[in-house]
Amino acid sequence: MIGRLKGVLLETDENMLLIDVHGIGYEVIVSERLATKLQSNLGKEISLYIETVVREDDILLYGFSGREEKKCFKMVTSVSGMGPKTAIAVLSVLTVSSFYQAILLGEEKVLMQVSGIGKKTAQRLILELRDKVSPEYLSTTPSESVISDFDEVSAALQSLGFEPQEYLAITNELRELGHSTNDVIRLTLKRLGEQ
Fold first, then answer.
1. Enclosing H/E stretch for 12
2. Cα separation, 2 vs 47, whole angstroms
C-alpha cells in the first residue's frame, strides 16, 4: 500500500492532483481546501500522506497534508455508510479541529454544512465518533464564536442564493487567514463574482 508520495505537482483539476514521482504520474484525490492551497505549487515538489482505497474495479489514492487529516479521513470512513467521498467532503468544508469540535459538542448544524450530510447522517457521525475523539479539541478555540460566525456567514451567503458547496472552501480559507465575519462575506462574494 502507498502511505506517502513525494513528487512534482503537474496538474490540479478541481480536487484531483497529478503528481510525477520519478516519471510515473499518480492521480491523487484531495479535499477542495487542499487543492486550492496547492495551486500555487504547480511545477514544484510536494509531499502528501496517502490513503490507498482498493475496490473491486479500482484503486484510488486519497492525499492529505498531514497525519491528522489522514486520521480524520479514516475516522469518518469507519462509520457505517460513510465512504471516502463523504470523508473528503468533510475535509473540504471543515478543518480537522472544527470537525472534532462539532462531534464532541453534538453540533449537527455544523456537520450539515457538508454536502451529502443530512440531519440523520450528522447524528450518526456524532453518536459513533464522540468516544473516539480526544477531548483536547474542545480547548483549541472557543467553539461558540466559530460556530456563530459560521452560521452568520452561511446565512448571509445562502440568502443571496449560493449553495454551501460553492462557497465553503473559500470562507474556510479566509477564516483561517484571520479575517472578520464581515470581511469573510465581502471577500467571498468578490471571489464568487470572479469565477
1. strand 4-13
2. 13
Q: Which of 88, 13, 16, 3 is nearest to 48 (CA)?
A: 3
* Element at 164 (helix H, strand E): helix 164-176
pLDDT exceeds 80 at position 83: yes
Question: What SS3 state is found at 27?
Answer: strand
Q: What average pLDDT does the structure give for the chain?
A: 85
Do 94 and 164 form a contact (C-beta atoms < 8 A)? no
Q: Residues 28, 66: contact at Cβ < 8 Å?
A: no
- Give the number of other Cβ atoms within 10 Å of residue 127's Cβ: 12
Q: Hey, what CATH topology would domain 4-64 get?
A: OB fold (Dihydrolipoamide Acetyltransferase, E2P) (2.40.50)
Cα four-point dihedral sign 76, 82, 88, 94: negative
**Which helix or strand (DSSP H or E) is residue 154 part of?**
helix 143-159
Structural domain boundaries of the chain?
A: 4-64, 68-139, 143-194
Q: How far apart are the first and last CA of the chain?
A: 38
pLDDT tens profile 141-159:
544 444 445 567 777 777 7
Alpha helices in 23-118 (DSSP H): 32-38, 67-77, 84-93, 96-105, 108-111
The predicted pLDDT at position 146 comes to 46
Structurally, what CATH architecture does the domain formed by 68-139 represent? Orthogonal Bundle (1.10)
